[in-house]
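Severity: low
Component: inverse-folding endpoint
Summary: output formatting inconsistent between runs
Steps to reproduce: submit the following structure tokens with default settings.
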């Protein structure tokens, strides 16, 4: 099995601890444990008094009943029995691909996207074609192009909705058409849904809610602001869930008692978490829009109220060289677009605290003056 370097993760591993202004992250400003407890209306004393009674054994292997119940509430027609807890959404995606993809299969994957969704199928011996997102189409895919890519042996379509790195969203009307396309050809759809649009006017159902062979993966890392505990999940049909259970036993035992407890607490208090995050996303997106409108060397297809954006920079320097210089001379961390196979762009995570965002954008503009 061969896997290439994971572009964005490798970049962050090398550079993120040097940042003064970290604009590379795609999480809505991460919560502290103190903030998490308070959002649920509890005191720290009360919270830890209850937690201290828990045995630090393996806990619930597939996720506690309370966790599964809370996750099932995020979907229209999913029962707790259809949920499997995983080690983040990366663990969920790996479980699905490891369970279903075999040598000789054909997979169609959105591109650019989360690299795991196309490199792991390749490593498992599948042929992979890219369903390209084009900036001139507002980074949205084209169903006619999908028709040209499909083969008799196509087994799966991998999507990331909302999309990382662009922040664009396939909404309900499009997803229904995609589901019908896959249904006619008996193709699985794996949908990584960690970036939930924080705008109630944008209708984005989970793929499992519109397609019987749709598989939804998610986590509490991005929209729920807690990447520090590694909890995600797979939501799939009963038949697929039973298959995933077998493969899951070979790759993990559990997420751990503490992680399950805290993830369940966060989901029980999701209204408070999402209310907090809606304000951050909406306010910071306005800051970003104002900067783009004033910065002649930047342009952007604006994200749909999600926490990642993909800014195009009109510069002479190679994009990775520029980003390294920007970090070393001005302390601003971005992810160069070549790490997503799209040079000339940067992933800019704008959902940090607003003062960091303003200062980082100001420093970025100063560096752009040199170009």
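Observed output (run 2 of 3):
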């Amino acid at each position: 099995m061969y896997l290439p370097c994971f572009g964005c993760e490798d970049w962050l591993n090398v550079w993120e601890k040097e940042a003064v202004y970290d604009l590379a992250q795609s999480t809505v400003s991460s919560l502290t444990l103190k903030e998490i407890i308070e959002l649920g209306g509890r005191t720290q004393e009360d919270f830890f008094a209850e937690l201290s009674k828990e045995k630090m054994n393996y806990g619930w292997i597939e996720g506690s009943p309370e966790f599964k119940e809370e996750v099932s509430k995020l979907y229209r027609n999913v029962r707790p029995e259809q949920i499997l807890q995983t080690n983040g959404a990366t663990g969920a995606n790996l479980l699905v691909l490891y369970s279903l993809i075999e040598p000789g299969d054909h997979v169609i994957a959105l591109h650019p996207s989360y690299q795991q969704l196309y490199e792991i199928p390749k490593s498992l011996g599948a042929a992979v074609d890219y369903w390209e997102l084009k900036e001139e189409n507002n980074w949205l895919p084209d169903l006619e192009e999908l028709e040209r890519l499909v083969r008799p042996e196509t087994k799966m379509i991998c999507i990331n909705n909302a999309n990382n790195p662009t922040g664009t969203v396939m909404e309900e009307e499009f997803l229904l058409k995609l589901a019908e396309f896959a249904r006619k050809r008996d193709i699985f759809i794996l949908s990584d849904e960690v970036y939930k649009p924080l705008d109630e006017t944008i209708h984005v159902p989970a793929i499992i809610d519109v397609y019987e062979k749709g598989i939804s993966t998610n986590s509490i890392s991005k929209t729920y602001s807690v990447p520090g505990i590694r909890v995600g999940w797979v939501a799939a049909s009963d038949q697929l869930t039973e298959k995933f259970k077998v493969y899951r036993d070979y790759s993990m035992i559990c997420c751990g008692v503490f992680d399950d407890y805290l993830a369940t607490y966060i989901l029980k208090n999701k209204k408070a978490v999402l209310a907090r995050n809606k304000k951050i996303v909406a306010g910071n997106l306005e800051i970003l829009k104002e900067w783009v409108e004033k910065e002649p060397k930047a342009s952007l297809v604006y994200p749909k109220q999600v926490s990642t954006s993909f800014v195009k920079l009109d510069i002479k320097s190679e994009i990775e060289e520029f980003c390294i210089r920007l970090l070393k001379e001005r302390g601003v961390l971005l992810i160069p677009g070549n790490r997503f196979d799209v040079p000339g762009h940067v992933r800019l995570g704008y959902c940090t605290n607003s003062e960091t965002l303003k200062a980082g954008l100001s420093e970025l503009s100063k560096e752009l003056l040199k170009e």
